[in-house]
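pipeline/complex-builder :: batch 7 item 3
reading input block
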Amino acid sequence: MGLAELLGTYGQNYLDGLLATWSMTAVSFVFVMALAVLVTVARVSPVAPLRGLGELYVQVFRNIPGVALLILIAYALPQLRVVLDWRTCVIVTVVLLGSAFGSENFMSGINTIGVGQIEAARSVGLTFMQILRHIVIPQALRTTVLPMTNLLIAVMLTTALGSQVPLSPQELTGVVSYVNTRATGGILAFLISALGYVLTAFAISFVGNRIDKRVRILR
Amino acid sequence: MSTRTKTAPSVRAALYEAPGPRARRRIAIGTAVSAVLLALLAALVVRQFYVTGQLAPRYWSFLLEWPTWRFLLQGFVGTVEVALTAGAIALVLGLALMLGRTSGIAPLAALCRVVTDFFRGVPSLLLIYFFFLVVPQYGIQMPSFWMLTLPVALAASGVLAEVFRAGVNAVSKGQVEAALSIGLSPAKTMRRIVLPQAVRYVIPSLIAQLVVVVKDTTVAYVVSYPDLMQNARVLITNYDALLSMYLVVAVIYVLINFAINKASVYVARRTGVKIIR
Amino acid sequence: MSQDSAAEKNVPVIELRHVDKHYGDLHVLRDVSLTVARGEVLVVIGPSGSGKSTLCRTINRLETIDSGEILIEGEPLPQEGRELARMRAELGMVFQQFNLFAHMTILDNVTLGPREVLGQGKEEAEKHAMELLERVGVGEQAHKVPAQLSGGQQQRAAIARSLAMRPKAMMFDEPTSALDPEMINEVLDVMVELARGGMTMVVVTHEMSFARRVADRVVFMADGQIVEEGSPDEFFDHPTTQRARDFLDSIRGH
């Protein structure tokens, strides 16, 4: 099958696949960031059970294979009468995995600030909330631009888990298996999807690097 | 996902100063309230298991039998075989990609860069579908072991190339200048001076990357290769115990990867090296 | 008003009463009592590990104490919350590592406290900040970020940051120890000028020439205890304890 024929027959599938990948990535990443903040707050809190919960969360979702988590959510949870639609299953999986790594990024972002600046802020008379607002959060955000850029790419790649459940429309990886089980798409069928990922990743890291250059903190 | 960072315990100490009496009281209340809420949450989960009948012995009793675990162990061996083989291939390939990229030969460097970025930029699942669905279209018959191992290895090689490159960059310029100044050729400088030090820097990161490899192997069922996950699926059809089996397998994977991560942190501490993502 | 300030005159700005502190098994402060009068420059010296930095940091509760009392103008140091923050705002602190806020310009470093804590407007805060930065000699650097400044410039900016709060007293925790030798004097000069201007100061330092020149009183600490205190001339020329003599000999290179 040549490129023209492939795109003529399945072009719409690829386009839908790309859009599905993009939209799942975008939706997931918003929740990844929100949850990562919550988990990080729990991990640095002075309340021991919350700290424990935060650490457990990160250890579990950093170490569980994506497929295992997706299967649990998509196929095991219904046995507990918790039924989510397929797309939601994939997004929940990606968000749980991604937020664990996002929280790790925030933790190391906080670590780079160092005790000294926080003590200095305290000495000037800033309250805890003022220190968070003016010293900790701005610096944590600015130092995590690159790690979070990489995380966004990782989130996109993780949405490929969508190929393991009957999504409609399928995302990019699912499209490859769809096309190749119906026709001999050959290497081209694979490359179209691969390019969708690679070019998106390239665009993301381009933008991420630009932002990082803008906001990077000299040390 | 492969972001990996080390967290120091000092964050908390820095953020929250030593509490006064009011803060201590508030923390005590918060601790009590959150402990009760967490216990309540756990109770709700257990209750849901109970009301849906998932606590019934038939879902769990097979886990007390030796054949179950023997079969899972066989699967685990399969997982280890794939992970170690893929890891070894990725190590060689990643090193080659890094050497190519830093070779100074422009076309080779560009090629290696494209290849590295490609493998880092596509999901491992897509690579698996390539070997499972596309390669056979060209008349190449592959055992399922390789249909799984090769894509996992390729995906990891892209990441490892970058890890190696970070390791090489971590070797100080002075070392290179010193080696060149005593008359070593650039190639020899790389082989005798830079690489041995770079490898030392990246060993903890390499161990940490094994976690990613292990995770990637879990889609073995796509190519029907009998790894831990695939064997668990077989047991599920045998015993009709989906929830319990998947939970147990998930816990096993988490423990394996947790152990690998701990090992990597341990080695990093011992050698005083930072883990590169 | 005049009555108030007259009454305040007799109350020490800083007073420590029988302060004790442990780090685990280590007894870092042993029954330390100390007063600092208004306008007084107190220099604390002693070998490393003697507890002098810890002493300095307990005064605005960057370190907690196990027992004893710390009074600021006769009021007990608050233990937490807004009261503590307000008290800290009235005490300047200068650190060994400068600790400027890395993501802000020098000007923003100096105006942050006045604007957030004292509620000053942007213009007012910036005008005052620029005056202070000029005074310590880094006015030209106001719009740079800390990493673009030399250590000496950073430390002078840090002093301006503290001064912007119009503090009642200032603590200096080894302010020149992290500096290259050629930058030490530019920081000490600023401190000398402050002392001459009547600022109440507690200075932990190894700079003996500074102590001799500026100190009203020298406190010598060892093993968490105040071993000896007196005027600089008394202390440097006629130390009464063997420990102080040993210490002075060691730094003079005998």
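note: The two ends of chain B are 10 Å apart (CA to CA).
queue -> next item
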